[in-house]
Design brief:
The chain is an alpha/beta fold and about 260 residues long. About 45% of the residues lie in helices and about 15% in strands. The model has no long low-confidence stretch (mean pLDDT about 95). This is SDR family oxidoreductase.
Length: about 260
């Protein structure tokens, strides 16, 4: 299938590693010009070099920290300089610290709301006018399977990512007539550094070894294994594609069948 992404311009947040980088690579492999964003210039430069060496799409990068007040303006300025405008926006953010609902303080809620919700919404609003003018846009927001089934000890993530669900569905209806789709991609247990960190935190909390915690988690996944970043990214690339033009307002789970909800 031709995804129709040759020459399309994509801004991919939090793409120096993990799921964001996987999506950026998948889009570039389909011929897109991707703009990677993260806090490690060295890592971003290395990733861009690898993508450009592959030879199909192109890659540039911007330093950016979602926690900074000037993040949105710096992205708008960077896109104008390096891409002109964008066709695809991939909203991806780091996850908050683990913890229970009782441990959520006002300070923690405010801190992570800024980086995980407010920046995502205001950045998307900044690019919507040009997408409307172009008559084409793909907005993909990476969240978590916790929006369907809250994940133990991830109360902040369950709460804040859940807020994006209502926002995405509302926006999808508002902009569909302009050729813009808005979808959410929900990872289950995809093997990234973040999963290793969370398993380590759970092992410490439960007084078990990392191997015991990992083995127990695999028993809950019908596929019997952790997902691969490339598998997750392929689903993201499709949702950003031209053939996916009639798919909007949806949440796609990539979890190996782990979620039991319908």
């Amino acid at each position: 299938m031709d995804f129709g992404l040759t020459g399309k311009r994509a801004l991919v947040l939090a793409s120096s590693r993990g799921l964001g980088l996987g999506i950026a690579k998948a889009l570039a492999a389909e011929g897109a010009h991707v703009l990677l964003v993260g806090r490690s210039g060295d890592r971003l430069a290395e990733n861009c070099a690898a993508i450009n060496a592959a030879g199909k799409g192109k890659a540039d990068w911007l330093w950016g920290d979602l926690a900074e007040d000037n993040f949105v303006q710096s992205m708008v300025d960077g896109v104008k300089e390096k891409l002109g405008s964008i066709d695809i926006l991939v909203n991806n953010t780091g996850g908050p610290t683990p913890g229970t609902a009782e441990e959520m303080t006002a300070e923690k809620l405010d801190t992570f709301f800024q980086s995980m919700v407010l920046r995502v919404i205001t950045l998307t609003n900044a690019f919507l006018p040009q997408m409307k003018e172009q008559g084409f846009g793909r907005i993909l927001t990476v969240a978590s399977s916790g929006v369907f089934e809250p994940i133990p000890n991830l109360a902040l993530s369950n709460t804040l990512r859940g807020a994006l669900v209502g926002w995405n569905k509302t926006m999808a209806a508002e902009v569909a007539s302009f050729g813009i789709t808005c979808n959410m991609l929900l990872p289950g247990r995809i093997h990234t550094d973040r999963i290793d960190e969370l398993d380590g935190a759970n092992a410490k909390r439960q007084g078990k070894s990392l191997e015991e915690v990992r083995a127990a988690s695999l028993k809950t996944i019908p596929a019997g294994r952790l997902g691969k970043v490339e598998e997750f990214a392929a689903a993201g690339a499709f949702l950003c594609s031209v053939p996916a033009s009639y798919v909007t307002g949806t949440m796609l789970r990539v979890d190996g069948g782990a979620s039991r909800s319908i």
